[in-house]
Write a structure and sequence with these properties.
- Helix content is 63%, strand content 6%.
- The mean pLDDT is 91.
- It contains seven helices and two strands; from the N terminus they run αααββαααα.
- A two-stranded antiparallel sheet has the order 1-2.
- It is mainly α and 172 residues long.
- The protein has helices at residues 9-21, 26-36, 45-57, 79-90, 102-108, 113-138, 144-169; strands at 61-65, 73-77.
């Protein structure tokens, strides 16, 4: 079995989704990640499959092949996998955020704010409206953690709208 300390955030994303679903194929994990956490943590589907293989090999997931049909691999957390996930969830360690905003990178290398700002503002206003509508529509159905993650998205988009308005006003 591999060392649990060597697990990455994508490893825990897979463990967390399988824990929430109870049992899942790599495809199910990919679909659920796209449906739920993609706005704040994207993960290429090839990485989902690689993580599933790695976690099975490490003994953190068990795997059963469905008979007939597509012969899908169905995975569940093992006790070791559940313990690793619980340990990770309880760990309050700070990890700095990596923003990865393409517009900000372009500004750094000399792009003109008057060209970028209108498009950035439109897109961040759109994302903010989607998050606010989602919060209004299903906010009471979410777990506390899910609601807090959604609130992060709302506050992030508000901050980005504020930033791009500031950048646009400074063109003079």
């Amino acid at each position: 079995m591999s060392d649990v300390r060597r697990l990455t955030t994508p490893s825990f994303l897979v463990l967390g989704i399988i824990d929430k679903l109870g049992e899942a194929s790599p495809y199910d994990v990919k679909v659920e990640a796209a449906r739920t956490v993609a706005p704040f943590w994207s993960m290429p589907h090839a990485q989902v499959y690689a993580q599933c293989d790695r976690l099975v090999a490490a003994g953190l997931l068990s795997e059963v092949r469905q008979e007939g049909g597509r012969n899908r691999r169905m995975m569940k957390l093992t006790e070791t996998g559940r313990a690793a996930l619980e340990e990770w969830l309880a760990d309050p360690a700070f990890v700095p955020v990596e923003a990865r905003e393409r517009g900000i990178l372009k500004l750094w290398f000399g792009a003109r704010p008057e060209v970028l700002a209108p498009v950035q503002l439109d897109e961040h206003h759109r994302a903010l409206a989607e998050y606010e509508e989602l919060a209004e529509r299903v906010g009471e159905l979410l777990t506390r953690g899910q609601r807090e993650a959604l609130e992060f998205g709302i506050r992030y988009e508000r901050m980005m709208v504020d930033f791009w308005q500031w950048a646009e006003q400074r063109r003079a």
